[in-house]
Amino acid sequence: MPEYKAPLRDMRFLIDNVFDFHGHYATLGATDASPDMVNAILEEGARFCENVLAPLNRSGDEEGCHFDNGVVTTPKGFKQAFAQYVEGGWHGVAADRAYGGQGLPHSLGLVLSEMIGSSNTSWGMYPGLTHGAMSAIHAHGTEEQKTTYLSKLTVGEWTGTMCLTEAHCGTDLGLIKTRAVPQADGSYAVTGSKIFISAGEHDMSANIIHLVLAKLPDAPAGTKGISLFIVPKFHADSGERNAVHCGSIEHKMGIKASATCVLNFDGAKGFLIGEANKGLNCMFTMMNHARLGTGMQGLCNGEASFQGAIRYANDRLQMRSLTGAKAPEKAADPIIVHADVRRMLLTMKAFNEGNRALTYFTAQLLDTAHLGSDADQRQDAEDLLAFLTPICKAFMTETGLEVTNHGMQVFGGHGYILEWGMEQLARDARIAPIYEGTNGIQALDLLGRKVLGSQGKLLRGFTKIVHKFCAANAEHGQLKAYVEQLNQLNQQWGELTLKVGTAAMKNPDEVGAAATDYLMYSGYIILAYLWLRMAIAAQAHGDAEFARAKLATCEFYFKRLLPRTATHRAAVEAGSECLMSLPADAFNL
Question: Model pTM greater than 0.85?
Fold first, then answer.
């Protein structure tokens, strides 16, 4: 398995030089998030991830989870690592102080989550799902529910899940069959089965709090009749076992150390959270948290893959450079001298560092949305989050999968076998474009709901930022050409959106046909903006070698990756006819 080292230099560059986290925290009044505190989280978090979690990544994949008559046991070392994590206070870094958290900004929690996910994606699923459950209870629960559940979830004594999917329905939640029948004591008897429940059963915490979508007996049809319920594994008051049991765990391609469960609710006692028939609104609080976390998994697996690939490329001897021997004292040159290997490594580097910048940019918006004192600023941040969330989830996981595939390819045949660990990263990364709403669904959400549904308002919120940036840097000596390239794409973005919207008024299929290419097109433009911000900040950086690497990678991104927007634009403009003209029965064998 590649040895993971937290990329602290790059993380600090974004925190200190690009996004000025310290000034950002001062503006929000987050005085506890001092430079010393940020540094401590980086240093100690890196130490925990490198020394405790990373060594369990390969062994966890090889062992997997164990299922025995409803009891799930995690791989060796996972439970002990979770105990260390809880003891160190990591679980509540960004949680509300009122329930035992440290109350630090969400951006610091995401910085920590990146290191956790890069060192051990499967292990990170257990606390990650819990944070999503905490956010939903905090936003929609009663004071009694918050006191009862958040105090235990925050410190890591209990963990949480989100239970949406059923065997006959995934994205179309209006088809769920799980039912919740009111009881005389104000609780509900929840009956039904849920599948693909990450961390649904395990041995790492004393209790598991399930947030379950179900329908009341008199619920309206479709998604308007969905309610959300808190269903604990063990009752909070008596400690007795609730009627929820794990029927099986899935045998998967990747993230094998993360227990993916079938959960059967047999009249389990549950408690309504939020309003009746408004459960989907409550669940979106948790889903959006999970989607940002899932998007970051693309970065996490990509970072681990890049670290393995760059070490191998420097060590592996194969052929001579086309321009003459670079290591004449050796039998052959290291493969890093070859242009095609450089192409793969620079693609990995450009996507990883660009996606990290996107993560941190989005993290600051989360801080403002939660901690900002100005209502207009909070609303602007929430609007930008609404626009960026599907892009973060889909673009980062698609490019993260590309990065892990390049990592395997750098190793050649050695990348395909178990010993080097590169194939595990590709397997682990493959789920990210699928769960928490497939990337096709994210694309429909972006184009259909967020962009066209807001009459372009949410898109304009971001393009205005890019426009101001381009205007301010139009005469930048070294980067002028790239600023103009970004400015032209930013204008084209609005024109393309108008074209799709006009076509969709005549034929709604145009939205579905354009959505995925539109999302990827958008993602490439967003990363171009962030790469220019990094390039400008790098020029003022004290480390000349570090600055040179940033500028060279920015140049590679603009010359070799950003041109992909032309292909995505052409696909969007091709319309739906070539997709929908073939009759469905013509696909039959």
Answer: yes
